[in-house]
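Q: Second attempt. The first request was missing the SMILES, so the protein and 6-O-phosphono-beta-D-fructofuranose are both included now.
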Amino acid sequence: MASAALICDTHPWKTLKAHVEDIKKTHLRDLMSDSERCKSMVVEFDGIIVDFSRQQATVDTVDKLYNLAEAAHLKEKIHHMFNGERINTTENRSVLHVALRAPRDAVIKSDGKNVVPDVWNVLDKIKDFSERLRNGSWVGATGKQLTDVIAIGIGGSFLGPLFVHTALQTDPEASKFAKGRQLRFLANVDPIDVARNIAGLHPETTLVVVVSKTFTTAETMLNARTLRAWISKELGPSAVAKHMVAVSTNLTLVEKFGIDPNNAFAFWDWVGGRYSVCSAVGVLPLSLQYGFSIVEKFLKGASSIDQHFSSAPFEKNVPVLLGLLSVWNVSFLGYPARAILPYSQALEKFAPHIQQVSMESNGKGVSIDGVPLPFETGEIDFGEPGTNGQHSFYQLIHQGRIIPCDFIGVVKSQQPVYLEGEVVNNHDELMSNFFAQPDALAYGKTAEQLQKENVPQNLIPHKTFSGNRPSLSILLSALDAYKIGQLLAIYEHRVVVQGFIWGINSFDQWGVELGKSLATQVRKQLHASRTKGEPVEGFNFSTTSLLKRYLEESSDVPKNPQTLLPRI
Ligand SMILES: O=P(O)(O)OC[C@H]1O[C@](O)(CO)[C@@H](O)[C@@H]1O
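A: Got both inputs this time. The predicted holo structure:
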């Protein structure tokens, strides 16, 4: 295939580069005084308001970004994705996570075959299994009801489901269905995570769900073997059939592991790990905890954004606008990071999930055609819920480096609290900060203002805020299963838009391979040294010394990991 021109060589890219100087001439506080501009920088869709007036951008900037989108063939690329074309070229796969939440009667094809019926076969199987488990018709080996679930998985087989679970936990409707049940996630191969997960649980009442797209991930498989041993030791090996199920694309390996393929929930290679929360990866554990009907609402929320993303004109298209503005911040204004700041404790695991979606998708060094890129892609994503973050890293955001911020607020709290005699309730207090922070960042505080306040001269430089720091405000009408699905899909598509503009492959992750293969070499060495006393060799001086020290000082650690388990 002839290699396509890089986006940075196009006229719209160069025009935007030149436009940066114009934008930098005007402070955000002056841009904010133009109410016509501000009015035009708000989009609303289905209970979600996105206000991007505090971006260092004008209407002209946004127009120029549309030209960039055209040069990058954004519309066509979105169409190719929804059309099931193999846009993940390095893995020769389609990218169809949108099919996971499509209505039953939708038609979405991969290789000419409508995949929606397959999706719904698995959803129906999950509905049936979760109902049987929740109503006690599926019981454990000793006849007891399985009230607790440990989902083993890592990366995309963990972060998305954890985010949704954390967000649903305090939703009044969802939590009603979760009474008496527990859902835990075992991700890290660290034995501490194993010990913490099984603490207080008994195999008799526990179902273990092994979640792995490949069913080869070293950490997940070792954790799966550890919990299989935990169950067998207590209940006998035959109990595994009743206490372990799997979610994977690799049903052959599931069976080899000893899990009945009838108790396996499939998904497909056209679902990327980090885009898999709407597959059985998320749907199974969440349905076991909250019931299928709640999870269906979550899927409907995501689907509403899919329809919007694929059909709304760019001027009204939330993921497209957000994606273009992120490209503006990274590639033109030169801001390498993005803070995701939900003013909702229920969204505490949102930033870690989006961190993987974004950084694993867009942290690339070459174009989709393999051409080294002369510009940076992706951004460093991090975040914490407000107001906690304010008392932690906001100092740097206000007076140190410039980090574009996403403020995410919710109109109606999941758990309103009213305290007699208080001026504002807890949620109002929280939201006061949600409204204040973007203006503090945009407007700042000048030396003149401080002088008027009689601030001592020596403190004026310390108390000055330069302002002119961009942010976005996203206001959700509520935070229920449907809205959680919408929020997820907005960010998934935004990341994809960024990748489409940069001309990279946002769907592979070769960058995780090198470390994995070096770990294999170390693992072999540890095994050979421990079992046959073989000397450490084949590593550089630093690694050899550290490995030797590790082997020497850990020689008295109990050999059987089972001995570690009952400690807490
Ligand atoms: O679901 P699996 O195959 O166990 O993979 C887990 C995670 O590992 C990665 O491949 C990265 O190491 C992610 O992309 C993926 O989400």
